[in-house]
Amino acid sequence: MQFFGGSDISPSPPAPTAAGHNANVMYMFNRNGVCLFYREWNRPLRTLNPQQDHKLMFGLLFSLKSLTAKMDPTSADKGNLGVPQLPGQGCSFHSFRTNTYKLSFMESPSGIKIILVTHPRTGDLREALKYIYSLYVEYVTKNPVYAPGSPIRCDLFNTNLDQYVRSIS
Prior knowledge:
The chain is of the alpha+beta class. It has 3 helices and 5 strands, in the order ββαβββαα. Strands 2-1-5-4-3 form a 5-stranded antiparallel β-sheet, sandwiched between helices. The radius of gyration is 17 Å and the shape is globular.
């Protein structure tokens, strides 16, 4: 996301040198804002405790979705800024980029929100997020011992997610 013109993001961190070092952090929230899953691969600086971090990330997404829906030039019904929207409702927000990271976002029809924070030079991750959601469906929701709405603790999901995220370039 760029403001006030400019053609390139600067200064930017060095490009990742090996495959699999693009992804930094992943969050997964349910429709109520409960963090179901959090995973770090490359996060050198931690400034907040996990609960504050999760609340800030969900608040950021809530605000960005609300803002993009309000600014949507194709919709006559703008709604009220800050009012929660149903999954799939409003303008579709996919990602934004800063000089230090790129945040990619996907919301499923059931309200599961997947956020992947990567290197700023990473390309479009919509298909990658859809694949991560398919891993969630396959290894978490189909797991008979998983209680919906509880934190995700599934070794098969973790293993397959780690393997897939390493392949993202």
